[in-house]
Each structure stands twice: as C-alpha cells, then as structure tokens.
Amino acid sequence: SIAPPTGDLYANPAASQAMLDDAAFDLESWLASEIAMEFARAEGAAFVNGTGSNQPRGFLAGPTSTLGDAARAFGTLQYVGTGDATGLGTDPEEKLIDLVHTMKAGHRQGASFVMNSSTLAEVRKLKTSDGAFLWQPGMVEGQPDRLLGYPVIEAEDMPDIAEDAYPIAFGNFRHGYLIAERSATQVLRDPFSNKPFVHFYATKRIGGQVLDSAAIKLLRIEA
Fold it and tell me: Which residues pair with residue 197 across a beta bridge?
C-alpha cells in the first residue's frame, strides 16, 4: 500500500469587529480567498520540493536514475542529462525529444512540461536547425503554450538552470503523483479569545508523493 506523507497548513488572521462591520466590501470573504491562495502556494512548493517530514514528499525530493522503467527501483525517477555542466547543452531540442520518449505512450497522453519562468525564457529561444522555434504559443484563449506538442506549465518552485539541478520535468502528474487531501479547508471563526479582534483559524491537511515513477521524467543539468 502507498501512504503519502502528510502535513497541516495553518493560518490565523485577525480583524477587528469594527472593521468587519464597516468595511465597504466583504472582508471575511476576502480573508478566506487570501488564505486559500497562501495555502495553494505552500502546497505547490511541497508537491515539488517537499521533504516528506510533516509535509508531502515532492517529486524532486526522491531518488533518481538514468535506468529505464524496467530496471529502476520503485519510486525512483528517470532523468536525461543535458551533456553540459551548467546549461541545456548544444543540442537541447534532441535532449527534450529524448526526455519525451523515455515515457511510455500511454502516459504521454495527458503529459506536460513543467518549469519555472526563467527556464521557460531559455526554452522559448530554442530553435530547430531550420530556424523554427520549438516553443509554440497557445493560439486560442485558454489554451496552454506548447513545447514539442505538449502543454507547458509554469511552476515557480521548479529550480533554475544550474549544475546538477532538475529544471525541467515532463510528466503525466494525474498518473504519476498522488495527492491525499483529508478535507477542504476548515475555518473556525473565533470572536472571543482576543476581543475586540475576530480571529479566523484556518487548517488544512494535505499529503502527496510519487505514485507511478514511470509517469514523471526529469531533465538534469550535468556534463
């Protein structure tokens, strides 16, 4: 069985009762939305880099190997090296194609590239030998940008391009990563403990870990 490591998120903002009464907008709803955004940022960081100690284990926190799917230990992610100790190398388009095709066809249906904005800035400059850009902008509103035909997702918690870093992931995260959410965010409204302030005590329990290591692949900066 797989039991992903979990952790609790907490927030405890306060507002005076007068502010809640007099504000020209729904301050309580605004606080709830701010809490939700902060929790989402923390969850995103943990799903990428979480240690697994009182928090999810991020997909970059586990072991990696160059071995193929049939040879790796369970939970170990396969990576492709760039051939350059500090960057994407002289043939990054070939490495990205190799990265895509280390994944079985069944997982490629629904897979996407994940990287931060500084890495994407470098990827957007890549061209094929005939001068065509590898990166293609989404031509319809609401459609993602694409790289080699696959969607590109920006995640600022991914590392920058640097020696021994994994700045680009290619994965079908619906198949590859398990998110265990005990319940929706619970908010306790407390007007008594610190009068005249009203405290909003928010909690959420979330867990996660790699579920299928064949469904997530990594690009590593290495010579």
Answer: 16, 194
Tokens 């007099």 sit on residue: 22
pTM score, whole prediction: 0.88
Could you tell me whether strands 14-16 and 197-210 are parallel, antiparallel, or unpaired per DSSP bridges? antiparallel
Q: What's phi and psi for 29, nearest 5 deg?
A: -65, -35
- Which helix H or strand E contains 179, and what residues bound it? strand 177-181
Nearest to 204 by CA among 221, 179, 175, 170: 179
Q: What is d(CA 219, CA 91) in angstroms, rounded to the nearest whole number?
A: 13
Q: Is the pLDDT of residue 136 over 90?
A: no
Q: DSSP per residue over 107-129, as a string?
A: HHTT-EEEE-HHHHHHHTT-B-T
CB 179 within 8 A of CB 207: yes
Separation between Cα atoms, residue 84 and residue 71, nearest integer Å: 25
